[in-house]
Specification:
It holds the Pfam family GATase. The chain is an alpha/beta fold and 232 residues long. It has one domain: Rossmann fold (3-Layer(aba) Sandwich). It contains 7 helices and 9 strands. A 9-stranded mixed sheet has the order 2-1-3-4-9-8-7-5-6, with helices on both faces. β1, α1 and β2 form a beta-alpha-beta unit. It is globular, with a radius of gyration of 16 Å. 43% of the residues are buried.
Length: 232
């Protein structure tokens, strides 16, 4: 399987997703939209992953690639292609499915517990810890199933079309290097300095075992996503 990945910032890349795809024998191409690369043709790949990116109100003047990317996401939804969004990518998918996307009450950064929704079809533990870096949130689209929630965000993700489409607000792909790059180069979400759900750099990086717990979760999520998309 060949997977297309859409990247929107040099400091918000695929991280461990790239390692997982390679280890499973999948080829992939990363399209750096923020660097002026055009979105791919949908027919040239078997699946599409939309990575994290900027927050806030965006338009085509700020992000000239955004119009083409939105069209690509709509085509993937209509074409029965496996589609996964993380952070900003999840918000674009929610928007394409007609759900409200808006600024949340508070920023949520660092490590926080996610409680799996009672009817969630995703094969993840009932509770798990994940890395967060967002203020923007989204509502549940029609015909979607909620994945789970955290204390600050009532919806941490959803699946749609029997698991072919997965949108995830939190980050299971995070590595120490990817998080350090984020902390070094990316401004935190608006209101992070006053949020009770925000952690400082020292707290985020103090326990490397947190990163070690993520790969099994990511493997379970991605494996189920591609199996569901293939109708297995």
């Amino acid at each position: 399987m060949h997977v297309h990945l859409l990247q929107h910032s040099p400091h918000q890349g695929p991280a461990r997703i790239a390692d997982w795809l390679a280890s499973m024998g999948h080829s992939f191409t990363i399209f750096h939209l923020d660097a002026g690369e055009l979105p791919p043709r949908l027919a040239d790949g078997d699946a599409l992953i939309v990575l994290d990116g900027p927050e806030g109100n965006l338009d085509a003047d700020q992000c000239p690639w955004l119009r083409g990317e939105r069209k690509l996401i709509h085509r993937a939804l209509d074409a029965n292609k496996p589609l996964l969004g993380i952070g900003f990518g999840a918000r674009l998918i929610a928007e394409a499915l007609g759900a409200i996307v808006a600024r949340g009450t508070v920023a949520e950064t660092g490590w926080h517990q996610v409680d799996l929704a009672p009817l969630s079809p995703v094969d993840l533990p009932d509770t798990f810890e994940a890395f967060m870096w967002h203020r923007e949130v989204f509502a549940l689209p029609d015909y979607a199933l909620a994945l789970g929630r955290s204390e600050a965000s009532p919806l941490q993700g959803f699946t749609w079309d029997d698991g072919r489409v997965v949108a995830l607000l939190c980050h299971l792909e995070a590595t120490p290097d990817s998080v350090r790059a984020l902390l070094d180069h990316q401004a935190p979400p608006l209101g992070n300095e006053t949020s009770p759900h925000a952690q400082d750099r020292e707290t985020i990086l103090e326990d490397p075992r947190r990163f070690d717990r993520l790969p099994p979760l990511l493997d379970r999520l991605l494996s189920q996503w591609l199996r569901s998309a293939a109708g297995a």
